Amino acid sequence: MAALVIGNSAYPDGDDLKNPVNDATDLGAKLKSYGFDVTVALDCTAKDMDKHLKAFRKLLEANEVALFFFAGHGMQIDGTNYLLAADTDMESEDDAKYSSLSLDKVVDAMAKSKAATRIIILDACRSNPWERKWHRSPGVRGLASVYAPKGTIIGFATSPGEVAYDGTGRNGTYTAALLEHIDAPDCSIETMFKRVRNTVAASSKGKQTSWEHTSLSGEFYFNLSLGNLIDEYDGTALADRLFVIDPAKKSHRIIAGLKTYDWYKQNPALELLDADSVEKMAKNSLFVIGRNIYQAACGDAHGAGEFVRKFMNVTSGYPVDKRKAILDGVLFEIFFDKDGKLRKRLKNRLFEEVFELQQYEELKDSFEFIAEALTATGGDFYAVPGKGHELAVTVSTKKRKDGVLVDAIYIGGVDVLRIEDEWGTEEVRYAGTDPKDLIDRLRDQLFLPARLLRISFTPKEAESADELLIPEALDCPEAVGVAKGCCLRDSKIR
Predict the structure, then answer these.
(1) What does the pLDDT read at residue 139?
(2) What pLDDT does 378 receive?
(3) CA dist., res. 332 & res. 237, Å (int)
(4) Among 69, 383, 456, 470, which one is least packed by beta carbons within 10 Å?
(5) Which of 311, 346, 376 lies at the terminal end of a domain, its last residue?
(6) Which residues form the domain of 11?
(7) Looking at the structure, do residues 219 and 253 belong to the same domain, yes or no?
(8) Which of 224, 250, 281 is the C-terminal boundary of a domain?
(9) Partners of 400 in beta bridges
(10) Is 149 found in the same domain as 61?
(11) In a domain? residue 126
């Protein structure tokens, strides 16, 4: 999924708009959280907009969902819609249309792409401050009606002839409503736009009516719940706080024992899990057993820890589908909480041991399962755990009088060390560590097994330094998380 998000606020002649930059910034962040590869462009010149559209068009060669958003001034000239740049020449209508981005050009670029689902959202019908200068008729206010090619939905902030209103807060009226409803779980995009329309009408006292053109042939959801994404297991297994224990079932007694946090009950409960019993157990129950085995192992229950470490031997006699259900549960517990939502802090206690199992061909389906779940839920990783991709990381250092300083960490040619974001303009504080410990910390934060991480130092001699100076944010154990709250900048799923 790819998105180009443009917000233009800085217009000439004192005709600045308050909200578009905020609208683009906030929607871009929201789309990124749903797994979109997002480009956010602010206060663009006409040349910038054209350049970003060309890059977006190329990006769509490898994406099935394409989204374009624009907030700013937009107008129709001779029945064609134009999105105005920060440097659009407003001397005349002809000057304006040749120094703006034609909406037809955007629609055409997306229609010719390989994307099966194309979404265009326009918060771009603010009142035109140049109407009087051009002696325009009020009848040509707003944007003109647009044909939506197959597989496309176009959302407009207003109906034809109406104008969009700036919001009273951070966002415009339309984008504020969009941000309010985009998170609704299991809500199709058409239903979401209907909810947006209601909110816009209420916020504007009926003066603004959003509308859409659509020719979508399939369903699209921004926030599809895990229960709808994963059909192998019931919602009560994915959100296992809803799982109801039936003491009459052996599998449920095992789960109850593992949930006690009491080693003297957890270990005997796990001893009930033998090959003959497993064959008779339902996959949902085995999935929840897997979750609780990993939970118990992270709590130092000896039997659960041994089960994880010796998984191949312990489960060798299990039916293939039942073994998969247990491992699926183990993997799911690392990344998802009791409500079936991605954890803010992942459970990494036995991460290395679990992901060593990825090397066994007969277990590959479980790792494909967790990779798909993480991708679908917008997990924020530089390389998705489960896909088996290697990740190259370069630690940049420089010598100072007080030691060897880590001043940057590069992934994909980008410095991801979040020093400025963490400390702002205050003086950065540093802590001492050694190269091996730094590698362990990076492994914890990147959530990849050691065999898939290629960590190098520049200059190379820093690899054998007695001590490295690192930002205290990197030294903090609380930093272990899904990018947010840790020392590394937020990533994109790759």
Answers:
(1) 41
(2) 65
(3) 10
(4) 456
(5) 376
(6) 2-224
(7) no
(8) 224
(9) 403
(10) yes
(11) yes
How many percent of the chain have pLDDT more than 70? 85
Question: Is 235 part of a structural domain of the chain?
Answer: yes
Q: Which of the four pLDDT bands, split at 50, 70 and 90, describes residue 493?
A: very low
Sign for the CA dihedral angle at 417, 420, 423, 428 comes to positive
One domain for residues 74 and 6: yes
Burial class of residue 344, CB neighbours in 10 A (0-12, 13-18, 19+)? exposed
35: Cβ contacts below 8 Å, ≥ 6 apart:
1, 375, 376, 377, 378, 379, 493
What span, in angstroms and rounded, lies between the C-alpha atoms of 325 and 337? 17
Q: Could you tell me if 8 and 25 are in contact, meaning their C-beta atoms sit under 8 angstroms apart? A: no
Alpha helical stretches, state H, 98-188: 103-111, 131-134, 173-181
37 and 104 both lie in a single domain: yes
Q: CA 260, 264, 265, 266: dihedral to nearest 10 degrees?
A: 70
Q: Residue 372's pLDDT band (boundaries 50, 70, 90)?
A: confident
pLDDT at 494: 29
- The pLDDT of residue 130 is above 50: yes
Residues shown for the chain: 494
- Can you tell me the mean pLDDT for 440-458? 87
Q: What CA–CA distance (Å, rounded) separates 375 from 254?
A: 31
Confidence of residue 456 (pLDDT cuts 50, 70, 90): very high
Q: Are residues 363 and 436 in the same domain?
A: no
Q: Do 343 and 371 sit in the same domain of this protein?
A: yes
Does a structural domain hold residue 212?
A: yes
Using only the alpha carbons of the chain, give its radius of gyration: 27
How many domains does the chain fold into? 3
What confidence score (pLDDT) does residue 481 get?
36
| 201-236 confidence digits (pLDDT tens) | 898 888 888 888 888 877 788 887 676 667 789 888
Tell me, yes or no, whether 400 lies in a domain.
yes
CB 71 within 8 A of CB 7: yes
Same domain, yes or no: 447 and 316: no
> How far is it, in rounded angstroms, from Cα 331 to Cα 398?
39
Amino acid 5: pLDDT: 95
Instruction: For residue 29, give both structure tokens.
Output: 């962040």
152/59 same-domain check: yes
Place of tokens 């407003």: 90
CB 34 within 8 A of CB 91: no
Please, where are the H alpha helices in 80-126? 93-97, 103-111
Strand, helix or coil for residue 75 = strand
Residue 95 pLDDT level (bands cut at 50, 70, 90): confident
CB 314 within 8 A of CB 307: yes
